[in-house]
Amino acid sequence: MAIARLLSGDEARAFLADRPPAPHRPAAVLVPIVDHATGPTVLLTRRAGHLAHHPGQVSFPGGRCEPEDAGPADTALREAREETGLTADRVDLIGRLDDYITVTGFRVTPFVGVVAPPLSLRPDPTEVESIFEVPLAFLMDPVNHQHGVREKDGKHRAYFAIPYENHYIWGATAGILINLYTVLQDAAPTADPLPS
Q1: Which has more confidence, 7 or 184?
Q2: Where are the domains of the chain?
Q3: Looking at the domain 2-186, which fold is it?
């Protein structure tokens, strides 16, 4: 996983060792980049507090793959529509990031999509408490990236976090965003050396 390169040796080992063994339950998320004239943002949700997995946490629209889905991209688009009202015709899928294995045993496949405003969104109260946007520039600035290791149930768990205003973006969501950052860094053209 590309984000493991950003951790120290001990942190990377803790991050990779903490993931449960296969088989993992397939899931997919949409990383929606809203193409505002004033600058792109990333659309995020706060999960409802009563959910069994990751209640109250900041997340991307997404969820478990269902048998009727044509594939993980279809899952991501379906879940985005169900959770936020964002329809597939407003989303231009432009790429796929590394799968992310959660500590709860999901293999999450993230798809990056560009979304054209204006948006007419409606959170599904059974799954989503609120919808908000964060400037992409803030999320892609490594100054705002945090990582560390915490102990839980006798295990050392590596984590990522990107705090923003009153939102604490961490866990899989922060990991996927930092993976996006590493992909963009790897794709950035390097300057040719100046002729002597």
Answers
A1: 184
A2: 2-186
A3: Nucleoside Triphosphate Pyrophosphohydrolase (3.90.79)
